[in-house]
Hints:
Layout: H1 3-11, H2 13-21, H3 27-38, E1 46-50, H4 56-65, E2 70-75, E3 85-89, H5 97-100, E4 106-111, H6 121-142, E5 143-154, H7 159-167, E6 170-176, E7 187-195
Parallel strand pairs: 1-2, 1-4, 2-3, 4-5
Antiparallel strand pairs: 5-7, 6-7
Helix pairs in contact: 3-4
Amino acid sequence: MPRRFVTERRRDPYYRAAQREGLRSRAAFKLAHLADRFGFLRAGGRVLDLGAAPGGWSVVARERVGPTGTVVAVDPRAVEPIDGVAFLRGRVGDPRLAARLGAASFDVVLSDMSPRISGAYPTDHARSVGLVRDAWHLAEVVLVPGGTFVAKIFDGDLVAGIEAELSGRFARIRRTKPPASRESSSELYLIATGFRARPPAPESAAPPEPR
Length: 211
């Protein structure tokens, strides 16, 4: 790990606060801010946390939905157990993941996923948008009507395209950057609220009976 990064991280007030409070990551402060501002984590809610490792967002979600709520965390990496959180090891984008979730439905789908950084920003931006699209394709299957989709995305010219994809299925979409996001970071969060399920396909008419 580069020495400069280590030094900057140690000076980061959110990193230090996460260490003091025993949080799994500084990202917990981002979700807490988003939930406070937009009010999508409520007692009794059902939450799907995609790309959950190391579990910082899952811990916050668990606290907010309380004992009557449900949190399911998904990641290809192992995550240390969290009381009250069910963990499913899998990769977002795997077409089998929805089936593995079974008949579960969720009020909120969260994605704090980031791509493996290449150092070429156009590539990293495109990969970030691809992860959001993978998360959205799963959310489209498991969200309840009126549900919320929250996803991290790297800013760039492709953001408008993914917003357009979401706009037809949600009542409102907003961009925001929590205070815990580093100023130098290009990350944004898309908050899509008021999910609209697709109407069921009309049944094909039965063929006329022969005379």
